[in-house]
Amino acid sequence: MLPLPPLLLTSEPNSFAQRTMQQRIPRIVDEIIASNDYPAEIVARLRALRDEITDGAIQLLREDAPDIEFWNASAREHAGKTWLDVPWFWAETFFYRRVLQAVNYFQPGAFDQRDPFANQKQRELDAALEPVRVALNQLPSQDAERFRALMHADLWGNRVDLSLWGSAGVGAVRGVRQDERDNLLVDDTARVLEHLTRPPLPFRERDGVRVDFICDNAGAELLFDLVFADFLLTARFATTITLHLKAQPFYVSDAMIKDVEHTRATLAQSPAPELRALAARLEQARVETRLNLAEHPFWTTYHFFRDFPADVRAMLGHAHLVISKGDANYRRLVGDYHWDPTMPFAEAVEYFPAPVVALRTLKAALIVGLPPGRAEELRAQDAEWLVNGKRGVIQFAPR
Prior knowledge:
By secondary structure, the chain is an alpha/beta fold. The chain is 45% helix and 9% strand.
């Protein structure tokens, strides 16, 4: 088994993990309050959570919910510690679970199952529709070139991440330009295309080709996920597609099944005929079970992917290709560790049960799969190269 480096911790001075907990997470709490019409008691709980994160000790969950023992078992391991003295990924995921407690998400009443990030997601979706429409009309005509263009668009759509920048980030999607190639540090698009087209036609007709997306953000990124999925089905690169989605709000903009359904409904009501046609094809694919939406509690936990439960491992093991979307999923895919940047991507994900490609814009201080000296070169050019979302990778590991 591959020896793992030390975990990224929130206690590391001047680290991105520490800045996340000191600055970004409290700001997210303020944005939740500003974006919702919560009563005074919920606002007070959210403000208390913010104060606990900035200047207090970690508290356990204290509500009646089916996952309380799962979370509290891990929280007890950190009893008496502050939020600046724990593993970074655990701290972020526990924060989002604590938000749901504060807003009564799992409790009967007016706020039961009400997404605290819904208004932010809606603004981002509204802003993304026109850039996506323009991108659709600029696609190449040849399937291979269209595949490349849509894979790149699906990568750069991940720049729009409400947990980092809010709705203003949608401007980054307006047109995937040629000069983005300079910011694409690893591009395994050709290898992925070869992998999908390698099976001879009799294999495709007999067994089919299943492609799974481990989805990330709603809004622009989910729109590009759906555009890419539609293309894979209509061009017969895939027989069936499964989108793996969150079962509850997570990381502000992470997509749930209801976000996919709302996005398709929004496309269907668009004045743009190309967006309405996309919605119709997606609905037909759903009816014919060529496009499937799935959720599992695992996706909203603090576990890395190497800790897949048996049912998730078996489910993904049936895929001919798994597309892992976004930065948080990359952290779970390789593990939130102090990796040597030259560690080969395929070795870091050797445990994965299927061929996998990671589409990730860089928003966290870890990376694998770079040639020797490249990380040092990038650091000299831009001290924030790992975390500012300007650069991306498309990294493929065959099985």
